[in-house]
Write a structure and sequence with these properties.
Layout lengths: L1 H31 L4 H51 L1
Length: 88
């Protein structure tokens, strides 16, 4: 069950990164679109950049923790295989 949840979280993590980045662009556009077309474009770019930074921080940290969990799972499986081969 834990493995399935970890794999599901890894899949959702990529989607969350995209949503956070696009949400930053939408927030930037919403903040500056009333000041003119070029200001709206600048708002989108700044919002996308800030959204990307937030997504990289949050989702990157989560991805690192998921990768550590996967490595620990592989090390545990390898240790169990080594124990079995020594007993035989």
């Amino acid at each position: 069950m834990t493995r399935a949840l970890s794999d599901m979280l890894a899949t959702l993590n990529a989607g969350m990164a995209v949503i956070i980045t696009l949400g930053g662009g939408a927030a930037g556009w919403n903040k500056l679109h009333e000041q003119g077309a070029s200001a709206g474009f600048v708002g989108i770019l700044v919002g996308l950049l800030l959204g990307f930074l937030v997504a990289a921080t949050v989702c990157g940290t989560l991805a690192t923790l998921i990768m550590i969990e996967n490595h620990l799972r592989n090390l545990l499986a390898e240790a169990a295989e080594t124990r079995r081969s020594r007993k035989a």
